[in-house]
Design goal:
By secondary structure, the chain is an alpha/beta fold. The chain is built from ten helices and twelve strands.
Length: about 375
Amino acid sequence: MTAAIERAERAIGGSPGRLFHLAIPPVAFESTVTMLGTAGLAPGSRVIIEKPFGTDLASAHALNNTVHAIFNESQVFRIDHFLGKESVDNILAFRFANGLFEPVWNRQHIAYVQIDVPETVAIEGRADFYDHTGAYRDMIVTHLFQVLGFLAMEPPVSLDARHLRDETAKVFDALKPIDVAHVVRGQYAGYHDEPGVTPGSQTETMAAVRAEIDNWRWAGVPIFLRSGKRLAASRQLVTLGIHEPPLRMLPIHSKDTPNGRCNEIVIDFADPGSITVRFLAKEPGATMNLGAAEMIFRYADSFRAANTLEGYERLTLDAMRGDQSLFTQAAAVERLWDISTPLLDNPPPIQPYAPDSWGPQPSLNHLTAPYRWHLPGVGSPS
């Protein structure tokens, strides 16, 4: 391997940099990183590490120690392709560049936050990985909490890597340990028939969590996180529900306004992405009746779509440039596993759900009370 790299470097000429992308099974991390160190390839190189970054606090800590024995933290790029999405990065622009929205981005104005990534696919032949991982480890720790870090951070001093990552780390530091009473674990009917799944497996194929951020901006605002397989739709959404005005003097008669959800900001971060502001407006006619209305920004209709980079393209380019802004720090990874320890040590029982449904009801509605889980524009249960 060393000889092949040396030949490639001579062919390129000059002083090329080395970037190792470790898209390998977790069991191979230690041996691969050690091999790079033994071969003398670590100095001056950078390394991309694919998820999962451990499966609990102990394994994450051990993985970080293994990596840091060979590479220093400035060389390490823990990749989460969600953070390379234009629509996720646009959360920062939407908040901090627009005086219309930043003043309401707090507990005084926002009633709840929902981050939802349901999937219609099954485990797709990945039982060897998935049956030892499950929806919480696979999606919520690795992806959804990372999106929450962008969504909930305080304004950074600048958008350089140090300041941006420091602010997301503060969000993770403020997360309360997961309360097992605020978790629903589901498993779709037929999971045990998937090739490679352990008989009687208690691995969850859907996880829903009610989290809390214990800081000045977000105290008391419930954070709902949900992801899973074989659900009724595939979406990637952030929904921020705005408090209703204290006095409702205007009647709502429209059938298009389910359960009184009138004021929301909905960020669709599935490529190419969009942002929708949902509000009430007067319906035409002689009487003052209100109906649901929307203002929508779509990336597909705006700017130059040809310039869009796919998540992995953007993050690989950033790693080549040495920009760690959209990559996770070692301490932040360990903090997320730390708050997950109560759940991992004492998970609630698995509840069955039918494929192509929205998961185990009524447990999900109980979890989100007094709100009810929904996907705007999808027709999920409400």
